[in-house]
Amino acid sequence: MRLRHKPWAREKIEAHPQYVILQPEEQKGRWKEAFQNDHPIYIEVGTGKGQFVTEMAKAHPDVNFIGIEVYESVMVTALDRLIEAELPNLKLLNVDAENLTDYFEKGEVSRVYLNFSDPWPKKRHAKRRLTYKTFLKRYEDIMPASGEIHFKTDNQGLFEFSLMSFSEYGMLLKFVSLDLHNSDFEGNIMTEYEEKFSAKGQRIYRAEAAFRS
Ligand code: SAM
Fold first, then answer.
1. 210 forms bridges with which residues in the sheet?
2. Residue 48 Rama label (left phi>0; alpha psi -120 to 50; beta)
3. CATH for 110-213, options being 3.40.50.1000, 3.40.50.150, 3.90.180.10, 2.60.40.1590
């Protein structure tokens, strides 16, 4: 993703504490209070400009969503969408997913979405992939025993790596599609990257993997 420096982004984020949780460590174990209900919480790690998580929150009002994005200059677009949509069931976090366990207790998150995660194709960068085993451990540490990861990508190499990583971690593969847009999967909500790549004729891969209890 091309990053543009937006000096005003931090100020805008800080002006909307009802949407962007500014001290997420303080929320650990208390997310129900932030949403004022005990609906399940689904997070998207690497939410980018927020199209997917915003549309998911509109489509599923009985689920609470949290979009996590490390770059404030990118997340500010997700914030604009949220300000426009005024959704009570969506919050944003401007943090690095490396530190997820600082923000969530075991069992607090019911599902993790990973959409078009950066592929980091060089072998020496494998540890940065969001499906690398150390990230799987972080997701496992914040989900209940049978928590699920739902993953989409256009990148065949990352998809193959991720299926191996899920499997080697002992996860159960519940759904695998090598061509999502020509499959019978219903209710797909497209991300920005998904729209861009599928318009160019690229196929979309999708998998659901569950931790075993
Ligand atoms: N999910 C969006 C989509 O499908 O359109 C954006 C995809 S973009 C290729 C990946 C995003 O993940 C980028 O915005 C990047 O900054 C974010 N990201 C990568 N590593 C991250 C991390 N460790 N923590 C939080 N966000 C991360």
1. 148, 172
2. left
3. 3.40.50.150
Pocket of ligand 1 (CB under 6 A): 1, 45-48, 68-71, 74, 96-98, 115-118, 191-194
Show me where the domains of the chain are located.
Answer: 110-213
Q: Write down the pTM of the prediction.
A: 0.97
Residue closest via CA to ligand 1's atom 21 equals: 46
Ligand 1 mean position to 211 CA, how many Å? Answer: 23
CA 169 to chain centre: 20
Residue type present at position 177: S
Tens-level pLDDT at each residue, the chain (213 residues): 556 778 889 999 999 999 999 999 999 999 999 999 999 999 999 999 999 999 999 999 999 999 999 999 999 999 999 999 999 999 999 999 999 999 999 999 999 999 999 999 999 999 999 999 999 999 999 999 999 999 999 999 999 999 999 999 999 999 999 999 999 999 999 999 999 999 999 999 999 999 997
Judge contact between 22 and 103, C-beta under 8 A: no
